[in-house]
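Format notes (please read before filing issues)

Several people have asked whether sequences and structure tokens are stored in separate files. They are not. Every record keeps both together, in the order shown below: the sequence lines, then the token lines. Line labels are part of the format and must not be stripped during preprocessing.
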Amino acid sequence: MNINAIYRHPAELNAEEMLAREHPYPESFALAERTVERMNRARTGLAHVMTELLPELDEEQGVVLNCWLNKILTIIDIARIDAEGRA
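Then the structure lines:
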């Protein structure tokens, strides 16, 4: 039996609450609009990790993780800009 089906960590519940959509996408949403909206939610999640969770790590772990998260954030921002240009 999968324990995750029974127990979900509080952090997972917080992340889902912060990042999930409350309602399905409207029928009128184009692919680019959905992409922009998803990239905004991903950016919100990364910003939370970088400002709230990252400072709690030891210095070396924080530096390494910050490098990775900054690169991921750049990819998200570029994808969002591209999608906004098509929306």
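For reference, the curators noted about this record: The CA atoms of residues 32 and 82 lie 9 Å apart. The helical segments are 10-19, 31-53, 59-86.
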